[in-house]
Write a structure and sequence with these properties.
Layout: H1 4-28, H2 34-51, H3 56-73
Helix pairs in contact: 1-2, 1-3, 2-3
Length: 78
């Protein structure tokens, strides 16, 4: 039997890792294009919705602005 709380914790940890890695790549990749930044953000959204089906709007409200802000700091408007 799977412990629902443990499963939720596992999925949250995976989401955090995916978002943190995406943020790091956007912030640090020297030759990242706007198109590549957008694709990275979209890929993170796909991961989020696979881990948490039906929560794409939550991603758009909470996580996308964080990633877009990091891109904007590098003058990559997404």
């Amino acid at each position: 039997p799977v412990d629902p709380l443990a499963e939720e914790t596992r999925r949250l940890r995976r989401l955090r890792i995916a978002v943190d890695l995406t943020a790091a790549v956007i912030a640090q990749q020297p030759r990242l294009s706007v198109t590549e930044a957008r694709q990275l953000i979209e890929n993170a959204r796909i991961v989020a919705t696979r881990l948490f089906p039906g929560k794409g709007d939550t991603f758009d409200l909470i996580i996308r602005p964080r990633l877009a802000r990091i891109a904007a700091e590098r003058a990559l408007e997404v």
